Amino acid sequence: MVPRTDPLTLEVVELIGTVVARYHEEYEEAAAEHSLTGAQARVLGLLSHEPMPMRRIAQRLKCEPSNVTGIVDRLEARGLVERRPDPADRRVKLAAPTDEGRGTAARLRDSLHFAREPLAGLSEAERTSLRDLLRRMLGTD
């Protein structure tokens, strides 16, 4: 497949890059306000949806399981995460947020305004269209 280099495609790629950079910048700032690294905040955010084993966290974040172990160790030391046996397989340990961890994850999410505020200015149909286009780009539609 030959990459598209027409001006519109190049502009869209540049805009996506700018959005991603701004999102990461705001995410890192919000994490720091909660005395977390960006990686710790991402793990805590993932776990706030559901407890999961280290391997799955690593797959979702596209990093090595040993990195996730260190991040979870630091979150556990702060009382934000705990390890517990997986009810489906007691040999597997799940990382799960504590009540304090869930609260921190919620406050972190609430402090991220970069994407949420501009999206609120779009109609529901525009947000739906944007979501569907992004899913299509990612191959998850």
UniProtKB/TrEMBL annotation:
It comes from the Bacteria. It comes from Streptomyces meridianus. Keywords: DNA-binding, Transcription, Transcription regulation. Pfam families: MarR_2. This is MarR family transcriptional regulator. InterPro entries: HTH_MarR-typ, MarR/SlyA-like, Tscrpt_reg_MarR-type_CS, WH-like_DNA-bd_sf, WH_DNA-bd_sf. Residues 9-139 form the HTH marR-type domain. PROSITE patterns: HTH_MARR_1, HTH_MARR_2.
